[in-house]
């Protein structure tokens, strides 16, 4: 399996690269018996999407689309023969703990050796207290992060991140990314499952973060609170 991944190149996603559309992915979970008894392909697809039929855990449409976007970004990066410049390369951010932490991790996150979740709590531009968990790797792939290191933009949680909460409006969102699945409504609290090695990261400050994971709280004047969760990813055997 590892040899196949090397041939395909870094960033290869067996689901996103194999299936052109979400419907194609659902169809791969349908067998002849399903079609024979249901007599309706669309109904069979709906049952697969709901998890009633199919083989194992089925990803949702939103996650499939996110993985397609990440896969295309990875493909474009492979086509570019020039080594990609790191967003934090050459930036002097020693006096800004979060930016320094992100700079130190960027290369390892980009090459897939490390996945990093950043928890930030602070006030937004409207003066509202917000908090959230950011998939650093996903941000690196989906936006230009250089303005953060140039301090032209502030890294802040968004409703599109792994988890987001506005303490004033009580708006709450959670979203999977190509790197993590969000496990909410759990007795252990909010959990994030790494999609590569299936290990779970526990963000409860009173609990251990999990296998191959570390929790680092940064002392910084940049934000009210910043916690960095690092997970060393290991491909499943």
From TrEMBL:
PANTHER family: CILIA- AND FLAGELLA-ASSOCIATED PROTEIN 299
Species name: Chlamydomonas incerta
Span of the signal peptide: none
Protein name as annotated: Cilia- and flagella-associated protein 299
Principal location listed in the UniProt entry: cytoplasm
Keyword Cytoplasm part of the UniProt annotation: yes
Any one GO CC term of the record: cytoplasm
Subcellular location, record wording: Cytoplasm; Nucleus
Free-text function comment from the UniProt entry: May be involved in spermatogenesis.
Swiss-Prot/TrEMBL keywords: Cytoplasm, Nucleus
Pfam family, one: DUF4464
């Amino acid at each position: 399996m590892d040899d196949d991944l090397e041939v395909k190149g870094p960033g290869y996603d067996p689901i996103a690269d194999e299936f052109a559309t979400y419907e194609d992915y659902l169809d791969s979970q349908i067998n002849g018996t399903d079609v024979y008894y249901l007599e309706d392909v669309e109904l069979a697809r709906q049952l697969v999407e709901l998890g009633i039929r199919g083989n194992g855990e089925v990803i949702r449409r939103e996650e499939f689309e996110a993985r397609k976007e990440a896969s295309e970004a990875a493909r474009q990066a492979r086509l570019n023969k020039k080594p990609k410049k790191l967003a934090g390369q050459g930036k002097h951010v020693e006096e800004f703990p979060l930016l320094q932490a992100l700079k130190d991790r960027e290369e390892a996150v980009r090459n897939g050796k490390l996945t990093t979740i950043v928890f930030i709590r602070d006030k937004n531009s409207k003066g509202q207290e917000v908090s959230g968990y950011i998939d650093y790797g996903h941000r690196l792939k989906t936006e230009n992060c250089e303005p953060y290191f140039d301090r032209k933009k502030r890294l802040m949680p968004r409703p599109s991140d792994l988890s987001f909460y506005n303490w004033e409006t009580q708006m709450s969102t959670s979203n999977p990314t190509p790197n993590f699945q969000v496990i909410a409504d759990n007795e252990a609290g909010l959990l994030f499952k790494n999609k590569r090695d299936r290990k779970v990261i526990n963000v409860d400050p009173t609990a251990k973060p999990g296998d191959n994971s570390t929790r680092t709280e940064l002392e910084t004047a940049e934000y009210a609170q910043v916690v960095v969760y690092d997970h060393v990813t290991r491909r499943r055997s």
